[in-house]
């Protein structure tokens, strides 16, 4: 286990180091036109980064780190909501597809996932806005919270902030925040949901072939009982690590979703920074996102190994 | 479980129909097309900055009456002009309160020091605040206020005197523009002592109907009602500028009620707005012009034949139909026909590619040339879609062998380019701040406006300059008109810029919004607005 952890951390740090090197090389080439010494400059750059100094935004005149702290929670809120939706929808649908393998339900679900996977995020977003906001008038077009409510961000996650504030209309504000979250989270959830369905389906099919499932069925347990108690429980550990890797994809499509829905998160902030040629913000933003994705996928990996020790076998086998 | 599901979905669908109605009634959501890049209109050149700041945060010595178009008292109770036209004396209104904000608590009401401070900053190069935030005051630099006003001094706590170097008929009108706001001298002193003078333009303090409560860059501005406002009667408790650059999204928000008022609706959206029973569309004659400004200091545009060839190549009617959907008119001059200075005897030539080709050949450019056309991003009050206009121009010029590269630039970056004079050509224009023709002519073509970046043609013509200066000094209206007619003839002959179109000023809002005035000049005024 220790060797495994060391290997993972090694991977984590070397990737991060490579990332900072890349970021600095770009900056060195673009801003300093390649004059001066590269390595001493890189050292200073790293020192500043480690001290939390991401530079000053030329658009606001404020530290980039503060902006990251302000916009990142909004992106996180969106991603988490999408993840929850994808699990809530994906696990039962994936299970259904596995149980009904080869029948019309399975075909329908598989076709659905293929369509969902190939639909462009921004187009789907616009379509949903047209239907639910403009035509039916059920949900707001964009934003994170109606600007009527003056909520001071504490965590930056509006569904939490609206509940902990002492605003007289905090309950209405909370409902409003939820209403704003629905459409972007649904759009963002499309791709990970299709992935959850496919992973759960294939993992469950694998498990259902096992002898103990047959044994349980011959014992006279109902099919539903066997699938839920024995099948799904053993299929989940196989599916979860691959789902963890989805986080990078989700974060990338979150950027597009944020632009469609004017969600005040990192993606929209980055795009604005690019149009304002705010180099410090662009550098800080990309570094932060890349770091987050690397850290998230490595920790997901470690976490699933800790929870399901059987996965370790694969690692030791790999050690050869 | 089922109960909770039903309850939650009911809540989601009904939304804010219950407790927060009062809040919605006291708040106005204004969907603006862009973020202000300062909170001080003195520094502003773009309408989005003026809309967001000029009438919400500040007051001026004088206002323009929207009906009579004459100056009326605002912070100044009355004013007196000396017989030689060189001295203007203003008596200030007593007891005008500045904003109490998180960053400043005023200890006294407005007095003469504040007025002196606000104008000295503009005209005095040695003033400690003159160079703060860049030291460029596009409007006042372009009309040459520094050369006109000799000094501003306080004669008493409520008496201010402006001393001019020469008589100027447009002076009083210019004091009523959006740019001529009065700032707090006390606040400025405090900032100077703290070593942060630039905050004067970022964390504003004024005497206007609202004060700044919250600003999130490129996202929204939240204003709260100024409780001690001298005019009183501000119905809105909060005013929120929701920054929504895309006009389709502004319209969507207006339709769903996420916006109460929408700035600059696009011409293509008129039909939707008119057909919707809950929306109101206001149109007013706008005194504006959109132009293609050619850099007359740069080859090949320093050749009048090339400029005339371009003017002959373009079809202003195409642009009017495709970009403005026919709402507006083709421009025959920089001044629109509603202006009293408009010269009706001048007409722009009709498109004539043959003649344009001949002129280019005369200039030795029969094979055409390459050029870059700069376009401001987003909608402007005088041009709803710069990119589309640019593409139409590109198509027309291609026929003459002129290869146009379009480059879309953010307001701030564009202004930097224009001030440096690096451009070939730029799509620009002007919305008049006063009914005075001087406002358009001076800002678009005056010599002083070159450094300010508003004269994007960089055209400084001694005869033209002579005419517009003479017009300012002229004692009678007839004489002023004569000078403006001559000035327009000079533009027509030299064609430093190609006037394209005039359009109407438009504003769309929800029927629940009342008492919204669409001003023919200047930025939006929301102090009287209320909701039902």
Structure, described:
The complex is a heterodimer of chains A (320) and B (532). Chain A is mostly helical. Chain A is built from 13 helices and no strands. Chain A is globular, with a radius of gyration of 23 Å. The model of chain A has no long low-confidence stretch (mean pLDDT 84). With 532 residues, chain B is of the alpha+beta class. Chain B has two domains: 26-246 and 512-531, Dipeptide-binding Protein, Domain 1 (Dipeptide-binding Protein, domain 1); 288-504, Dipeptide-binding Protein, domain 3 (Roll), CATH 3.10.105. Helices cover 33% and strands 21% of the residues of chain B. Chain B has helices at residues 2-14, 21-25, 47-57, 112-123, 138-143, 145-148, 171-175, 185-194, 247-256, 270-275, 304-313, 316-322, 353-362, 386-398, 411-420, 437-445, 449-452, 462-473, 477-494, and strands spanning 27-32, 62-64, 71-73, 76-81, 87-92, 149-156, 159-164, 210-216, 220-225, 238-243, 261-263, 279-284, 288-294, 329-330, 370-376, 403-409, 425-431, 497-502, 505-510, 513-514, 530-531. The model of chain B has no long low-confidence stretch (mean pLDDT 89). Chains A and B meet through helix 5 and helix 7 of A and helix 1, strand 8, strand 10 and helix 9 of B.
- Rg of chain A, rounded, reads 23 Å
The end-to-end span of chain A amounts to 15 Å
Beta-strand proportion of chain B = 15-25%
CATH T-level fold name of the largest domain in chain B: Dipeptide-binding Protein, domain 1
Gross morphology of chain A: globular
Q: Profile the largest sheet of chain B.
A: 7 strands, mixed
Determine the number of helices of chain B (DSSP H or I, runs of at least 4 residues): 19
Number of helices of chain A: 13
In CATH terms, what is the fold-level topology of the domain at 64-267 in chain A? MetI-like fold
Largest sheet of chain A: none
Percentage of residues assigned to helices of chain B = 25-40%
Order of helices and strands of chain A: HHHHHHHHHHHHH
Morphology of chain B: globular
In terms of quaternary structure, the protein is heterodimer
CATH class of the largest domain in chain B: Alpha Beta
What is the CATH architecture descriptor of the largest domain in chain B? Alpha-Beta Complex
Biggest interface pair, residues each?
A: A-B, 31 and 34 residues
DSSP, total strands of chain A: 0
Query: Which strand order does the major sheet of chain B show?
Result: 8-9-10-1-11-19-12
CATH superfamily descriptor of the domain at 64-267 in chain A: MetI-like
Pfam families (chain A): BPD_transp_1
Membrane topology (chain A): Multi-pass membrane protein
GO molecular function (chain A): dipeptide transmembrane transporter activity
Family (chain A): Belongs to the binding-protein-dependent transport system permease family. OppBC subfamily.
């Amino acid at each position: 286990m220790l060797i495994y952890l060391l290997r993972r951390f090694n991977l984590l740090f070397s990737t991060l180091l490579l990332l900072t090197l890349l970021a600095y090389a770009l900056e060195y080439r673009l801003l300093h036109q390649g004059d001066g010494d590269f390595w001493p400059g890189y050292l200073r750059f790293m020192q500043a980064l480690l001290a939390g100094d991401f530079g000053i935004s030329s658009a606001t005149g404020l530290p980039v780190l503060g902006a990251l702290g302000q916009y990142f929670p909004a992106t996180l809120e969106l991603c988490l909501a999408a993840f929850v939706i994808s699990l809530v929808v994906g696990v039962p649908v994936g299970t259904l597809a596995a149980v009904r393998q080869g029948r019309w339900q399975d075909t329908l679900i598989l076709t659905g996932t293929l369509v969902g996977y190939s639909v462009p995020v921004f187009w789907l977003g616009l379509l949903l806005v047209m239907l639910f906001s403009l035509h039916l008038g059920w949900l707001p077009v964009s934003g994170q919270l109606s600007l009527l409510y003056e909520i001071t961000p504490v965590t930056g996650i509006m569904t939490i902030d609206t509940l902990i504030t002492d605003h007289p209309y905090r309950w209405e504000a909370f409902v409003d925040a939820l209403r704003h979250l629905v459409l972007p989270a649904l759009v963002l959830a499309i791709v990970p949901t299709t992935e959850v369905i496919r992973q759960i389906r294939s993992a469950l099919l694998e498990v259902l072939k096992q002898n103990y499932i047959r044994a349980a069925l011959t014992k006279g347990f109902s099919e539903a009982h066997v699938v839920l108690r024995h099948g799904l429980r053993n299929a989940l550990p196989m599916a979860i690590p691959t789902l963890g890797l989805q986080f990078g994809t989700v974060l990338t499509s979150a950027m597009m979703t944020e632009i469609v829905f004017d969600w005040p998160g990192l993606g929209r902030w980055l795009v604005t920074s690019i149009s304002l040629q705010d180099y410090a913000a662009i550098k800080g933003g990309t570094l932060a996102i890349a770091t987050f994705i690397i850290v998230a996928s490595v920790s997901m990996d470690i976490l699933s190994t800790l929870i399901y020790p059987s996965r370790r076998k694969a690692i030791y086998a790999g050690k050869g | 479980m089922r109960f909770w599901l039903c309850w939650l979905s009911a809540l989601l669908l009904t939304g804010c129909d219950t407790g927060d109605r009062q809040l919605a009634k006291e708040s106005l959501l204004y969907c603006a097309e862009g973020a202000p890049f300062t909170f001080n209109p003195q520094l502003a050149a773009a309408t989005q900055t003026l809309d967001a700041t000029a009438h919400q945060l500040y007051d001026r010595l004088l206002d323009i009456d929207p009906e009579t178009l004459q100056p009326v008292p605002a912070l100044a109770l009355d004013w007196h002009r000396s017989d030689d036209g060189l001295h203007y004396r203003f008596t200030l209104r007593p007891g005008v309160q500045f904003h109490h904000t998180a960053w400043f608590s005023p200890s006294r009401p407005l007095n003469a020091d504040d007025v002196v401070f606000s104008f000295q900053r503009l005209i005095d190069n040695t003033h400690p605040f003159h160079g703060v935030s860049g030291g460029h005051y596009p409007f006042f630099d372009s009309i040459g206020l520094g050369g006109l006003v000799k000094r501003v001094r306080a004669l008493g706590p409520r008496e201010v005197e402006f001393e001019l170097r020469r008589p100027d008929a447009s002076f009083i009108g210019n004091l009523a523009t959006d740019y001529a706001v009065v700032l707090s001298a006390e606040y400025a002193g405090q900032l100077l002592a703290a070593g942060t003078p630039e905050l004067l333009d970022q964390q504003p303090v004024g005497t206007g109907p609202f004060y700044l409560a919250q600003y999130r860059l490129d996202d929204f501005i939240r204003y709260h009602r100024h409780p001690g406002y001298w005019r009183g009667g501000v119905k809105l408790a909060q005013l929120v500028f929701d920054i929504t650059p895309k006009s389709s999204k502004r319209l969507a928000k207006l339709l769903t009620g996420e916006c109460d008022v929408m700035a600059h609706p696009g011409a293509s959206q008129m039909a939707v707005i008119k057909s919707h029973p809950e929306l109101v569309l206001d149109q007013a004659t706008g005194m504006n012009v959109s132009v293609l400004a050619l850099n007359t200091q740069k080859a090949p545009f320093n050749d009048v034949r090339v400029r005339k060839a371009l003017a002959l190549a373009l079809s202003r009617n195409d642009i009017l139909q495709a970009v403005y959907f026919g709402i507006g008119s083709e421009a025959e001059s920089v001044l629109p026909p509603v202006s009293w200075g408009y010269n009706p005897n001048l007409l722009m030539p009709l498109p004539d590619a043959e003649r344009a080709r001949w002129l280019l050949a005369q200039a030795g450019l029969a094979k055409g040339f390459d050029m870059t056309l700069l376009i401001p991003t987003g909608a402007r009050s005088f041009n709803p879609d710069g990119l589309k206009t640019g593409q139409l121009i590109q198509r027309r010029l291609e026929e003459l062998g002129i290869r146009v590269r379009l480059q879309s630039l953010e307001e701030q970056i564009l202004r930097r380019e224009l001030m440096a004079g690096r451009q070939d050509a730029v799509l620009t224009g002007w919305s008049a701040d006063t009914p005075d023709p001087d406002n358009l002519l001076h800002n678009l073509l005056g010599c002083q406006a070159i450094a300010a970046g508003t004269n994007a043609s960089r055209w400084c013509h001694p005869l033209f300059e002579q005419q517009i200066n003479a017009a300012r000094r002229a004692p009678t209206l007839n004489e002023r008109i004569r000078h403006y007619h001559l000035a327009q003839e000079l533009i027509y002959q030299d064609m430093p810029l190609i006037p394209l179109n005039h359009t109407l000023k438009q504003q769309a809002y929800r029927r629940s919004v009342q008492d919204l005035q669409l001003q023919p000049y200047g930025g939006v005024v929301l102090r009287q607005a209320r909701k039902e």
